[in-house]
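Hi W.,

Here's what went into the run:
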Amino acid sequence: MSLAQLLVRLAYRLQASSRYAQLKGFFHKLLTDPRSHRRKLFDSFMIALVLVSVMLLIYEVRHPLGPWADVFEVFVVTVFVSEYLLRMWLYNDSHKILIEHWEKAELMGLPFHPALALWAVIRRKLTYMSTPMAIIDLLSILPSYRPLRFLRLFLLFRLLKLFRYTRNLTAFGQVLVEKRFELYTLSVFVGSVLLIATVAIYLFEAEAANSKVLTLMDALYWAVITLTTVGYGDIVPVTTEGRVVAMVLVFAGIGVISFATSIVVMAFHEKMRELHDNRVFAAVERQSSLTIVCGFGRIGQVVAQRMAAANQAFVIIDKNIESVIQARKHGYLAVPGDATDGTLLANLGLGRQASRILCLTHDDVSNVYITLTARQASPDILIISRANKAETVRKLVQAGANHVVRPYEVVARMAAEFIGQPVAFDALYDVVTRTAGVYIEPVAVRAGDRLEQQRIGEIDINAHHLLLFGVIRSNDAPSVDGHARFDLAGRHFYFNPGPDLILRTGDLLMLIGYQASLAGFRQFASRGKKRSKGKA
Amino acid sequence: MTPRYALFGCNALAIEVAWRLTMAKLAFVMLDRDATLVEQARQEGLAAEHLDYTDDDALRAVGIGGNVEGVFCMLREDSENVFLAISARALSPGLRIVAVCRSPEAADKLLAAGADKVVDPYEVSGARVHELIERPEVVELMEHTVFGLQDLNIAEVTIPVSSWLHGVRLNQLRKHMTQNVLLLGVVDRERGKDMIFSARGIDHNLDYDDVLVVIGPQRDVAAFQAMVTSDKAPD
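Here's what came out:
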């Protein structure tokens, strides 16, 4: 068997192995998954390890440590090396690259070059190794290698590893990176000023009597101390020319300091919003199920209030920054932005943990667009959209909305229903909205439970203090005559069925009653038939 | 056909209500004092009329205080609706008044002005969205049946003074219910507005002026109504 065959076979075996996938999943959870609880623990452990190892390094300078310190160092390095290798392993799936190359070669009828495929694998790993974080990881390990002991200083790079485990530090680094042009300009300016000042003070002072500037290094040291407005006063110019240089340098120093301060302040100010948003994104990442609320107008507010009361996780997007501030005041997660922006929605978990999206902006065009974006990103997300115009309803359904709510229609329906029978309407509305203690709830008939294949007359619903409003049954079940039947978007609804209707698996009983009675009935139903065995 | 309901407003919301009433085959008259809005509603195919609602005589001429049973205050401004509700209530204490409010603060004012029901479009829509999240089956079911256009309706039947049901227990009434209606509960108006749920297990003693809340197809509801209002118990 050639090497190429061996490689490909190995790759396919890895692809098929569930244990390999499980193992990789475990380490993914431990090291990289931002939502995992284990990762948090791991991060804390690593932070502690870094801090202890650096503290030992400092302590060791004056106090000789026993052999256990070496053992600890070996342990630390082992952990670091394993982490480094694991991260490299997790970065991508090498066997997929191999398989891809092999299949491509097969498909095109070309010879398979294992060397090329391996090179592609290595290239990907090298890409990982050249990321800043990977370099820092490497630098924190290397100095431990004995011949490189002179690199001891680099052990301090371990502190940089902390960046990996805390988000805020990363943000700080990003600020500096983003302002690199300004910082570069500043450093060029500082460099030239320092150069001029150093040379000038050296020229004027080096030969003067009582002068303390004896070497060019003295001159540079003096220039730096003066420019930064520190001014120790250990070296002071004695000639008039030297003092003039000092005066000019002091003013230049003030300029440099204020420029530098303003750059950093500005950068943080600009970054503030993003930092805020990032916090929201991070909070969103931690949720396992989430609702995205687009638009924080009056309807959005009502929905948010209700969802907060029901302890459901949600995040708000609104174009209007004031609405966002208002939402944040209520303690809701909110980001400013245009909900038609696909990347923003993706950041908020669309296509991943977002299970619902509510398009509640007052603009029908936006609602249609968001609906379409959401449906494309995820085929099974629940989309509820608001339509202001009647014509939009169809467009929203076409775009993929599961439900459409049209405020005027809701009002018109309520008003028209109320006017004829106000008492009955209020009573039923209270039941539907659960304001009066009596609820209407679906109870599903499951295979093997006590309701399956039962005649309705045999279940004493009345004894449970419940009222059977009706039964919802899917369309493909044979229809039953002799009962009032209504169409229900692809399903049938048997209203108030008599005692003769026989329940089937998948039926939904719509029951009205107090919460306790409903809970009791559910328990009763799920207990299972007496004759069935082994099923809960 | 004399209109039983007066619908004030010719804006988009009012037009929506108008269609709803048309579909429910309820006779109504549509009114506004803004001539251009009236014209718009007419172009939609609705019989809208121009009327200055600030004039009590004009309101009387429409039938408020007369044969009009209910008024919809669907005007654009909350202040207009408050004014209309006050005027209508003054003309007829027994009138049913439904009003829409645009800002949440106006709801209390409208109730104080005499409206029986105030609907806040945003509040009810928000509630609806949340209901759809929490209990989609229930909302869909209600929308398609009771609150929809199929022949399944809620109805209230008030027990008249002469009815055989006066002094009869709820369980006994249930025995006589051969129609396909669901008795949701009873509102004992002497005790308040809350409904006594029928399956609660308390055998309520019915008396006249109690309101029976039922759900059912039109024909069965009518039959039930006839049974309740009759002075003799069915066999």
